[in-house]
Amino acid sequence: MLPDVDDLPELLLDLAVPHEDINDLVAQRGRVTGDPGVLRLLESCVEELFRDPEETGRTPDLAGLLDAAPAGLTRTFPVYVFVAAVPRTLARHRERGIPAEISRHTLADLGRHMAVHRRRHGTTGVQSRRWLVRHFRGELFQLGRLQFERARLGERTAPVIAAAGLDAAPGTPCLNLHVPDFHGPLTPSACDRSLARARAFFARHFPQERPVAALCHSWLLDPQLRRYLPADSNIVRFQDRFRTAREDTEPSDTEPVQFVFGEPGLPVAELPRRTSVERAVGDHLRAGGHWYIGHGWFPFPVE
User: Fold this and answer.
1) Confidence category of residue 192, pLDDT binned at 50, 70, 90
2) Distance between CA atoms of 258 and 303, rounded to whole angstroms?
3) Is the pLDDT of residue 54 over 80?
4) To 10 degrees, the CA torsion angle through 171, 175, 179, 182?
5) d(CA 125, CA 47)
6) What residues contact residue 55 under an 8 Å CB cut-off, 6+ apart?
7) How far is residue 116 CA from its own chain's centroid?
8) Which residues contact 265 (CB under 8 A, 6 or more apart)?
9) pLDDT value of residue 182
10) Which of 9, 42, 119, 233 keeps 20 to 30 A from 302, CA to CA?
């Protein structure tokens, strides 16, 4: 299920795996392919990953299987699972006529999450391994600056969208919009291009779904950021795209700390103040405030 030792480095590079991780992954390949028990575990993980492939909104939880990897492979085993899944993922993409460039950019998120893991822990591994299941199942796609996840409206959001006059009910197709790191600034022009690509992409490759709205659930939509950032900042202009779906009352202080500073557990008193966003996040927490996940939406007519 895995490429041989000569082909594996090339595929890892296609997946944007950090260069400093490649030699270790190639060297450990034999521990996977040479152990029948580990190979069976790998096959079980891939089968679970693709179970119910056309059902959106159900992300398989591979944690139990992944945690069964033998000592010494626990950090790297998820990488081999995703590598083994690549041929089936690409076959499903080809069935829908999805361009190879979009497939490559989407699956390269594996390398981004490995870079995050190395930045936090200094070792080879995968951050947010369950999150990446969406990419390899064909539920999420990188389209320019933004990522778009096929989803369906839930019990809380559907009535809000229906009240705005759209044909929406629980289970109606929608898109969850995500803002990945390491992709440059979140400029309005980059977002405009990404949204235009998404409208054409989903109309062409998933015409049966016809999402009614785009949703975003992120600390970037916390309205308190407007107190600290200028009206023409990228984050505020990103917020301007959305209508409020609901408001959280439970703080999520570690979310902005994680994404802005790279580590959720950093001491608040020591957070840097190098940029306007760093100053906003840190100063607000140091003053005793809290940050919340914002929930926004806007209509998403497809072509």
Assistant:
1) very high
2) 36
3) no
4) 120
5) 22
6) none
7) 12
8) 254, 257
9) 87
10) 233
SS3 content of the chain, % helix, strand, coil (to 5): 50, 10, 40
Instruction: Specify whether the CB–CB gap between 72 and 166 falls below 8 A.
Output: no
Query: CA-CA distances (angstroms) from residue 268 to 252, 258, 264, 276?
Result: 14, 12, 10, 16
pLDDT tens digit string along 155-189? Answer: 999 999 999 999 999 999 999 999 998 899 999 99
Percent of the chain surpassing pLDDT 90: 86
For residue 206, the cross-strand partners are none
For 16, the 3-state DSSP assignment is coil
Ramachandran category for residue 41: left, alpha or beta (phi over 0 → left; psi -120 to 50 → alpha): alpha
The answer to whether the predicted template modeling score (pTM) of the entire model surpasses 0.85 is: yes
Taking all residues of the chain, what is their mean pLDDT, rounded to a whole number? Answer: 94
Select from 116, 176, 181 the least CA-distant residue to 141.
176
Phi/psi of residue 218, each to 5°?
-160, 155
What residues contact 232, with CB distance under 8 A and at least 6 apart?
none
Angle of helix 77-95 versus helix 100-107 axis, rounded to 10 = 160
Over its C-alpha atoms, the chain yields an Rg (Å, rounded) of 20
Q: For position 67, what pLDDT does the model report? A: 87
